[in-house]
Design brief:
The protein is an alpha+beta fold and about 1450 residues long. Helices cover about 55% and strands about 5% of the residues. It has 53 helices and 21 strands. The strands form six sheets. Strands 15, 16, 17, 18, 19, 20 and 21 form a seven-stranded antiparallel sheet that branches. Helix 22 runs parallel beside helix 24. The termini are far apart.
Length: about 1450
C-alpha cells in the first residue's frame, strides 16, 4: 500500500481553512517559524476570539453549575424527608491508629455489606432460621446468601439504587473520616475549607465591626455638625470643611509615612462658599475621606473639627463686625475721598478706651500700644528701658492720660477756667427759653464735662473699690459669679441673671456717692418694659452725654497741641460741684418721662436714621444732629413730657466720670428674664451663609482714589500710549494689596485696625457704642478737609504723570534696551515749539543730576533719569504743569511714533523681559529658573526677529581668583549656558591670562561685537573638538551691570552653531540683548536681596528664640505676586520654628499657600492686603501676623507669630518681640533701598563689608547696636548710675554684667582687680565709658576678645532676672553686651572670607586705563563671590 503524501500546512487550501477556523475562534497550530502578528492584528484576533469563545464557555459553565445546584437541591429534599440514621455516627472516631482502616472500610465495604447483613437478617427471620433447633439441619445458608448479595450489589457494576438512611449516614461519616486522614487531598481540602470558613467568619466580623464603626463615626460626625454655625438653610459651606481637612494635615504631627496618603481620596479645591451641605451630606462627605482612620486619628480629627467650628464662628462674627466697620468708614468719609485721618482715628480710639470702665476695657486692646499703633511710633527708650509690667501700667492709667497728650499746661488752670465757665453760664441762663442752648452755650457744656471728669476721678476709684468689696462679700455668701452676656446668649439661658444681685448692690453703692447713677437703672427698666426680648440699653441722654465727654479731647485740641480757652471766669470748685449734683438730680427726675416717650420709637428711629446701613448695623443707635462748633448732640424731646428741658438739659449733660462708666455698667447689658438667643445666632442674627467682607480688599483698595483715567478712553489725547499704559498698570502690585500710609487709612486698613482694637470678646452693645462714638467724634475741620483733598489730588496727578512718562519711555525704547541716548532726547526736545524753549531746556539740563559717566561716551538715561529730566523741563516751562505735561507727552509721542510692526515687536520683547523678572519673584529664590527664562527669551527673539538664527548663550559672573592669583586677580565663572554647550562651557573659569574679549567688555563696561570670530584671533573657544573650518560666526559680549552701573559679570552670545554666513547680530538685536542683560541683572539682584532678607529673618528669629521661650512658633512667608495685577498672590513658606527653638528652613521648592486653600489661614492674606498687624485666635492658639514692608509701604513678608494658649506674652518677652520686629523692618528697608539704588551702601561695622547674603544677619545686630548706643548716649553720666553706685556690696547680677562690659572694651583686664573689684568697676561708670561704648565696633579687626570668657561671666544671668531688676542702665548694658557678643561670633565666621577678599582687593591692577573700572568692579565682586 502506497504511503499517503504528507499534507502541507502552507498550501492555499489549508491556509484558507485555518483562517476560517481562526475567525471561529480556533487556534492555528504553530508550524515552523512564523512572523509575529502586528499589534493591531493581534488585538483584532483576540477581540474576535473572546467575542466567539467566551460566551460559549460561560454558557457551559452556567449549565454545569445549574445541574450541580439541582442535584444538591434534590439531596437536600431527600434528607429533609428521610434524614440519615443517627446510628451511623457510631462509626465516627478520630482515633489515629485505625483512622485510615476505618475510612477504607466505610468507603469500600460497609455501604454494601451493612445492607446485605440487614437483608440477610430479614430473610433469616422470615424463614425462621433463628428459631430452628441447633440439631435440625437448615436448608438456608447465610454465607451463600450474603455472597450472592454482595456479587449482585457490587457498586462497580450494579445499578445504583437510592441508599437507605443508614447508608447515607455512613457516607457522610466516611467523608468526614477521609478528611481526617493526613496527607491526603481530602484532608488538605478540608483544612482549606476550615481556613476559608474561619477567614470568612473573621471577615464578616470585621465587616460588622466596620459597619458599626462607620455608623458610630457618622453619628459622631452628625453630632459634630451641630457645633458649626449654620446658615439660614441649616447648611454649612463645603469650603469650610475642606479647609478643616486640609489644616488637619498642617497642624497635627502625624507619622511621615502616612502623611501623604492619610485620606482615602485626594482633597478637592473649592474656592467658593456657594456649595453647601446639610447634616447627612456632611457626615457622608467627611467619612469618605477618613474611612481608613484609626481611632486615635479620628479622635484627633473630631477635636480639630470642633476647633474649626469655633474658628468658623469667630470668622463669621468678625465678618459681621467688619461689615459694621465698613459702614462706619462710609459714614465717616463724608467727602467720599476714600481715606480717613489715621491720627484722628487713633486718638478717638484712645479716648474711647481711656473712658471705658475696667470691666469693659478688658474686651478692647489698648490703642496706645502695639499692635494697634506702629512700632515706629514707640519711643526708643520705651523699647529698651521701659521695664514696667503692662498690667501695672494699665491699672495706673486713668482718664487724665488723654489730656496729658494734649499738652495741657496745668490741670489746676484748666479746672479753674472750666468751673468759672459753669457758674457764669448758670447765672445768665434764662429759665423760659424752652429749648437747647446754642453757640457759646454748647462750648461751655463741653467744658463742664471736662471739669467733672477731672473732679470725679477720685470718686470713681472709690466707687469701683466699693463694688469690688460688695462682690467679694457676695462670693463668700455663695453667690453665683458674674458671667458675660455673650456666654448666656450662646447657651440660650432663660433663668434669672445671676449677676442681678451684684448689679443692684453696685448700683446702690454708686447712688450713695453719685445721685446721677439712677440714670442707667431707670433706662434699663424702661427698656425691659418696652422690649423684653432685647438687651437693655441706657437712655439716649446718657449716651449723648457720654459721647460728648469722649469727643471733648478732639474738640479742644488745636493744631499746635494746646487747649482752646473757653468762657469767662467763675467761682470756686465746691460751688460747681453742688450745682452739678443738683443738675444730676433734676435729670434723674426727668429720665422716667424721657424713657417712656423715646424708647417705643427706638426701632423706628434706627431704621429711618440709617437707611444704608448693613445688616450688622440694623440695631445701631441712631445718629443725632451734630452742632457746628461744639459737635454736641441735641435730642428730640417733647415739650409736654419735659417742660423744664431748657434749664435742665445743659447741666444734665455735664455728667461725671462715674456716669460715663455707668454707660458700660453691667446693668446696661443685663438681659431681661425672657431674653433667649439660639446658639446659632451671632450678634442676634442668623448667618446668611456668605462672608460679605471676604473680598473687601479686592473691591475697595482703590475706593475713593482720584485717578484720572482719561487716557483709557477712545478719544484720548494719547492713543499711542494707551496700550503701553494698560500693560504698565497690569504689571503693578496685586490689586488686593494696599500700601501703608502713616497719615491715613483706606477702607481695608481702617476695618482691620478697628477689628484689632475690639479684640475677641466684645458684646454687641459695646460695639454699637464704639461705632456711635466714632461716627459722631470723627469731625474734620474745613482746612483739614481741604488739605486732605489737596494731598489726594497731588498723589493722583503724580501717579498719572509717572504713568504717562513710563509709557512714553517704553514707546521710545521700542527695542527694550532699558536706556535712552540723552543726545537723541535733546534733539527731539529742541524741536518742541519750533525751538522756542531751548533756554528752558538748558536750565533744566543744568539742574539734572547727570547719570554716571559711561566708558562708551554715551550718556544713557534710565527710566528714572528720563522722568526726572522731563519733570525739570516741565518746571521750567510757563503755564499749568498738567497742561505742559500733556503737551510735551503728546509732542514726544508723535515724534517717536513707530510702525505697527515695530510696536508688535516691542510688545513681544517687553513681555519676554517681564517673564524674566516675574520668574525671579515667583520661584522661591532659586536662580536656575531665571537662567532658563533668559535663554528662552533669547531663543524666542532669535526665532521671531532674528531670521531664525541658532544662537548659543552663556552667563559668567566675576569672582576673585583665590586659588591661582598668579593668573589674574579676578576670573569669570560660567554659571549657566544653553543646553548644547553645557558639556564644554558650564562651570568653566576664564582667567585673565587666557585669550578672549570678555574681560575687555567687563573692564571697559561696554558691549563688544565680533562679527567674524574666525578673523579676530583673540577668541577663546571652549569646544576644542570643533574643527577650524566650523569656527565661524558672530560673537557678542554684554557686561552685566547692577543699579549703580558696576559690572558683576557678562552675557555672551554667539552663532557658531549656525553655519549661515549671514548670521551676524544686527543693531536692534544687540539693543534687545542689552535689555535682556539688564532684566537678568534686576532678577539676579532681586534674588540676592531675598536671600539677605531671609538671612536677616533667620538671625532675628534665632535671637528671639533665646529670649522668648513662651513663643509657640514663628513662621515666615514671602509674598510672591501673581501673573499680573489681577491675579492673586501666593505665600511661600520659607522658615518655621517650634517652642524648643528648633528652626526648619525649607529648601527649594518651599511649600506655597494659596488664599483659597484654607479659610482659617485668611488672616495671613489680610496682613499682606492691609500691610497692618492682624491678631486672631485659630485652633485655640493666639496668632499675630506682622507684615514686613518695602519702602513703598507694601507688605512683602509676613511673620506668623504663634503665642500658644495665652493671649499675650509676658512683658519682657513682648518687648523683645517688638525689638526684633523693629530691627528686621529697619534692616530690610535699608537692603531694599540699596537694591533699588535709592540709597548708597552705608557701612557702620567692618563685618558689613562682606558682599553676600550674610550681610543681612550683620544688619540686624547693627541696628540693634545703634539703638542701644543711642539709648546709652542719652544717659546722664552723673546721675544715671547712682542707683548702681549706691550698693556697697556688689550685686552679683549687676557685677557680672558690668564685668562683661569692661572686658569687651578692655579685654586685657581679664582676671585683674579692674573688673573683679566692685569698687574699681563702679569707678568706670562715667562719661568716658559711655563714649567708648557708643563708638565701639565689636567686629573690627583690632578687637581680640575671647568669647568663652564672656560666656563664663554671663553664666547664671537670666533675662527675666535682669528685667525684674528694674534698672534702665543695667538693661541697656545687658542688651549691649549680648549684642556685642553675637556680633563677635558672627565676625569670626566671616573673618576667613573677609580677610581673603580684602587681600585680593589690594592686588587689583591700578593702571591708568583700568583703575576706575577695577575699583568699581572690586566694590561688587565680593557680592557675587559666595552667592555663586
Amino acid at each position: 500500500m502506497a504511503k499517503e503524501p504528507k499534507q502541507s500546512y502552507n498550501d492555499p487550501e489549508t491556509t484558507a481553512i485555518w483562517d476560517q477556523l481562526a475567525r471561529r475562534g480556533k487556534q492555528r497550530p504553530q508550524v515552523g517559524m512564523q512572523q509575529p502578528l502586528s499589534p493591531r492584528t493581534d488585538a483584532r484576533w483576540k477581540a474576535i476570539f473572546y467575542e466567539n469563545v467566551q460566551p460559549r464557555a460561560l454558557n457551559l459553565q452556567n449549565v454545569k453549575v445549574g445541574m450541580l445546584h439541582k442535584k444538591k437541591a434534590q439531596q437536600e429534599k431527600v434528607e429533609k424527608k428521610v434524614p440519615p440514621d443517627s446510628l451511623s455516627r457510631e462509626w465516627f472516631d478520630e482515633e489515629a491508629m485505625t483512622l485510615e482502616t476505618r475510612a477504607y472500610l466505610l468507603d469500600k465495604l460497609l455501604p454494601t455489606l451493612v445492607p446485605g447483613v440487614e437483608k440477610l437478617l430479614k430473610v433469616a427471620e422470615r424463614k425462621k432460621v433463628l428459631e430452628a433447633e441447633p440439631e435440625q439441619p437448615c436448608e438456608f445458608d447465610p454465607i451463600n446468601f450474603l455472597g450472592e448479595y454482595l456479587m449482585r450489589c457490587n457498586p462497580s457494576y450494579a445499578v445504583s439504587a437510592p441508599p437507605d438512611p443508614y447508608v447515607r449516614g455512613i457516607k457522610a461519616v466516611t467523608e468526614e473520616l477521609k478528611a481526617q486522614v493526613p496527607e491526603t487531598t481530602l484532608n488538605k481540602l478540608a483544612q482549606l475549607k476550615v481556613l476559608v470558613k474561619e477567614k470568612r467568619k473573621q471577615r464578616e466580623q470585621v465587616d460588622e465591626i466596620k459597619r458599626r464603626v462607620k455608623a458610630m463615626r457618622k453619628k459622631a460626625l452628625a453630632i459634630q455638625f451641630r457645633e458649626w454655625t449654620l446658615d439660614i438653610s441649616s447648611q454649612i459651606p463645603l469650603m469650610m470643611i475642606q479647609s478643616a481637612l486640609k489644616s488637619f494635615l498642617d497642624i497635627h504631627t502625624l507619622p511621615t509615612d502616612i502623611t501623604e496618603g492619610i485620606y482615602a481620596r485626594a482633597l478637592e479645591a473649592i474656592g467658593t462658599l456657594e456649595v453647601k451641605v446639610n447634616e447627612e451630606e456632611f457626615a457622608e462627605y467627611v467619612f469618605s475621606y477618613i474611612k481608613n482612620f484609626t481611632s486615635d486619628m479620628f479622635q484627633e480629627l473630631l477635636k480639630h473639627l470642633l476647633q474649626c467650628a469655633n474658628d468658623a464662628r469667630e470668622i463669621i462674627r468678625h465678618d459681621m463686625s467688619r461689615r459694621i466697620f465698613f459702614q462706619l468708614f462710609l459714614d465717616c468719609d463724608c467727602g467720599k475721598v476714600g481715606l480717613l485721618d489715621r491720627r484722628r482715628v487713633l486718638i478717638l480710639l484712645e479716648n474711647f478706651y481711656n473712658n471705658c470702665p475696667e470691666l469693659v476695657r478688658k474686651g478692647f486692646r489698648n490703642p496706645g500700644q502695639w499692635p494697634v499703633i506702629e512700632l515706629d511710633d514707640i519711643e526708643l527708650t520705651e523699647f529698651w528701658g521701659d521695664m514696667e509690667d503692662d498690667e501695672q501700667r494699665l491699672s495706673q492709667r486713668n482718664l487724665l492720660s488723654k489730656y496729658s497728650q494734649l499738652d495741657l499746661s496745668g490741670k489746676a488752670m484748666v479746672l479753674s477756667q472750666i468751673l468759672k465757665d459753669i457758674l457764669s453760664e448758670d447765672a445768665v441762663a434764662a429759665p423760659d427759653t424752652g429749648g437747647t442752648t446754642e453757640g457759646p452755650r454748647d462750648i461751655s457744656q463741653e467744658e463742664i464735662v471736662l471739669g467733672q471728669q477731672v473732679i470725679s476721678e477720685v470718686e470713681m476709684n472709690a466707687i469701683q473699690a466699693t463694688v469690688l468689696e460688695e462682690q467679694a462679700i457676695e462670693d463668700q455668701e455663695g453667690q453665683v459669679p458674674t458671667v458675660v452676656l455673650e456666654e448666656q446668649a450662646a447657651e440660650g439661658q432663660k433663668e434669672q441673671d445671676p449677676t442681678a444681685g451684684l448689679e443692684e448692690q453696685a448700683a446702690e453703692g454708686q447712688r450713695e456717692k453719685d445721685p446721677t447713677a439712677s440714670l442707667e437703672e431707670q433706662a434699663a427698666e424702661g427698656q425691659k418694659e418696652q422690649d423684653p426680648t432685647t438687651v437693655a440699653r441706657p437712655s439716649a441722654a446718657t449716651e449723648d452725654s457720654f459721647i460728648g465727654a469722649m469727643k471733648l479731647g478732639l474738640d479742644t485740641w488745636e493744631d499746635d497741641g494746646n487747649v482752646k480757652p473757653k468762657g469767662p471766669a467763675a467761682t470756686s470748685e465746691s460751688e460747681a460741684a453742688v450745682m452739678l449734683e443738683q443738675a444730676s438730680k433734676e435729670h434723674d427726675l426727668s429720665s422716667d418721662k424721657q424713657m417712656s416717650s423715646e424708647e417705643p420709637d427706638l426701632a423706628a428711629k434706627t431704621s429711618t436714621a440709617e437707611p444704608a446701613s448693613s445688616p450688622g448695623e440694623e440695631t445701631t443707635v441712631p445718629d443725632k444732629d451734630v452742632g457746628a462748633e461744639g459737635g454736641h448732640e441735641h435730642m428730640e424731646e417733647s415739650t409736654e413730657d419735659q417742660p423744664t428741658a431748657g434749664t435742665s438739659e445743659p447741666l444734665a449733660q455735664a455728667i461725671t466720670e462715674s456716669q460715663v462708666s455707668g454707660l458700660f455698667s453691667e446693668s446696661s447689658w443685663k438681659p431681661s428674664k425672657s431674653f433667649e438667643m439660639a446658639p446659632q445666632l451671632i450678634y442676634g442674627q442668623s448667618w446668611s451663609g456668605d462672608l460679605e467682607t471676604a473680598d473687601l480688599t479686592f473691591n475697595y483698595t482703590d475706593y475713593g482714589k482720584e485717578v484720572r483715567e482719561d487716557w483709557n478712553i477712545e478719544n484720548t489725547r494719547f492713543p499711542g500710549l494707551r496700550m503701553n499704559m494698560i500693560d504698565i498698570q497690569s504689571r503693578g502690585p496685586p490689586s488686593s494689596t494696599s500700601a501703608f500710609d502713616k497719615y491715613s487709612f483706606n477702607v481695608p486698613q481702617f476695618v482691620q485696625v478697628m477689628e484689632t482694637f475690639i479684640g475677641e470678646e466684645v458684646s454687641l452693645s459695646d460695639l454699637k457704642k464704639l461705632v456711635k462714638f466714632m461716627k459722631q467724634g470723627y469731625v474734620l475741620l474745613e482746612r483739614e478737609k481741604i488739605s486732605l483733598m489737596e494731598r489726594i489730588h497731588h498723589d493722583a496727578s503724580l501717579a498719572r504723570q509717572q504713568l504717562l512718562l513710563t509709557a512714553l519711555f517704553e514707546k521710545w525704547d521700542n527695542e527694550c534696551s532699558g536706556y535712552l541716548d540723552m543726545k537723541e532726547v535733546d534733539e527731539v526736545l529742541n524741536t518742541f515749539k519750533e525751538g522756542m524753549e531751548k533756554e528752558a531746556l538748558e536750565k533744566a539740563k543744568l539742574q539734572l543730576p547727570m547719570p554716571l559717566w559711561h566708558p562708551s561716551g554715551v550718556v544713557k538715561l534710565s527710566q528714572k533719569d528720563f522722568q526726572t529730566y522731563i519733570d525739570l523741563v516741565i518746571s521750567e516751562f510757563t503755564g499749568n504743569e498738567d497742561d505742559v505735561l500733556d503737551n510735551i507727552v503728546e509732542f514726544l509721542m508723535t515724534s517717536v511714533e513707530k510702525s505697527h510692526v515695530e510696536r508688535l515687536k516691542g510688545s513681544a520683547r517687553r513681555k519676554w523681559l517681564h517673564t524674566i523678572l516675574h520668574t525671579a519673584k515667583t520661584n522661591g529664590g532659586s536662580i536656575d529658573p531665571v537662567y532658563q527664562a533668559v535663554f528662552k527669551a533669547l531663543s524666542r527673539d532669535a526665532d521671531a526677529h532674528g531670521d531664525s538664527k541658532k544662537i548659543s548663550a552663556s552667563i559668567a559672573l566675576l569672582e576673585y581668583n583665590i586659588l591661582l592669583p598668579e593668573r589674574g586677580d579676578v576670573l569669570l565663572h560660567y554659571v549657566a549656558c544653553t543646553e548644547d554647550d553645557a558639556p564644554y562651557v558650564l562651570n568653566q573659569k576664564l582667567y585673565m591670562d587666557m585669550k578672549g574679549v570678555s574681560f575687555a567688555a567687563a573692564l571697559d563696561d561696554k558691549p563688544i561685537h565680533v562679527p567674524r570670530v574666525q578673523l579676530h584671533g583673540n577668541i577663546h573657544f571652549w569646544n576644542c573638538d570643533r574643527p577650524e573650518q566650523e569656527r565661524k560666526g558672530s560673537f557678542l559680549v554684554l557686561p552685566l551691570e547692577d543699579v549703580r552701573r558696576r559690572v558683576f559679570g557678562i552675557l555672551g552670545l554667539d552663532t557658531l552653531r549656525d553655519q549661515n554666513d549671514q548670521a551676524i547680530f544686527v543693531p536692534h538685536e544687540i539693543r534687545f540683548y542689552q535689555g535682556v542683560a539688564k532684566a537678568f541683572s534686576l532678577a539676579y539682584h532681586h534674588i540676592r536681596t531675598q536671600d539677605s532678607i531671609k538671612q536677616m529673618t533667620v538671625t532675628a528669629v534665632e535671637w528671639l528664640s533665646t529670649r522668648a521661650p513662651s513663643l509657640q512658633a514663628i513662621t515666615a512667608y514671602f509674598m510672591e505676586p501673581g501673573k499680573d495685577r489681577m491675579h492673586d498672590y501666593t505665600l511661600r513658606k520659607v522658615m518655621t520654628t517650634n517652642q524648643k527653638g528648633c528652626m526648619e528652613i525649607f529648601p527649594h521648592p518651599a511649600p506655597v499657600l494659596i488664599r483659597n486653600d484654607t479659610i482659617f489661614s485668611d488672616y495671613l492674606f489680610k496682613c499682606i492686603d492691609c500691610a497692618e498687624a492682624v491678631t486672631v485666635c485659630v485652633y485655640e492658639n493666639h496668632h499675630i501676623a506682622v507684615p514686613l514692608r518695602d519702602p513703598a509701604g507694601y507688605a512683602i513678608v509676613v511673620f506668623d507669630i504663634n503665642l500658644g494658649q495665652r493671649p499675650r506674652l509676658p512683658s519682657c518677652e513682648h518687648k523683645d518681640l517688638q525689638k526684633m520686629l523693629k530691627m528686621v523692618q529697619a534692616g530690610s528697608s535699608e537692603i531694599l533701598k540699596e537694591d533699588s539704588g535709592d540709597l548708597d551702601p552705608y557701612y557702620v561695622l567692618e563685618a558689613e563689608y562682606v558682599g553676600d547674603w550674610r550681610r543681612g544677619g550683620v544688619l540686624f545686630y547693627r541696628f540693634m547696636l545703634q539703638d542701644l548706643q543711642n539709648c546709652i548716649w542719652n544717659l546722664d553720666p552723673e546721675h544715671s548710675f547712682d542707683e548702681i553706685k549706691k550698693h556697697k556690696r556688689p550685686p552679683l547680677l549687676v557685677h557680672q554684667i558690668l564685668k562683661c562690659v569692661l572686658l569687651i572694651l578692655y579685654p586685657q583686664w581679664a582676671g585683674t582687680e579692674e573688673v573683679e573689684n566692685w569698687t574699681c568697676c563702679i569707678e568706670k561708670l562715667d562719661g568716658d565709658l559711655i563714649e567708648n561704648i557708643c563708638y565701639f565696633d565689636p567686629t573690627a579687626a583690632y578687637v581680640q576678645i575671647r568669647s568663652e570668657v564672656l560666656y563664663r561671666c554671663l553664666q547664671g544671668v537670666r533675662r527675666i532676672d535682669v528685667w525684674k531688676l528694674g534698672s534702665t542702665p543695667v538693661e541697656y548694658l545687658y542688651n549691649w553686651t549680648l549684642t556685642c557678643l553675637s556680633l563677635i561670633e558672627l565676625a569670626k565666621k566671616l573673618q576667613c572670607s573677609q580677610t581673603t577678599i580684602s587681600q585680593s582687593s589690594k592686588q587689583l591692577l591700578q593702571s591708568p586705563i583700568q583703575s576706575r573700572q577695577i575699583s568699581e568692579i572690586s566694590d561688587n565682586i565680593s557680592q557675587t563671590f559666595s552667592s555663586t
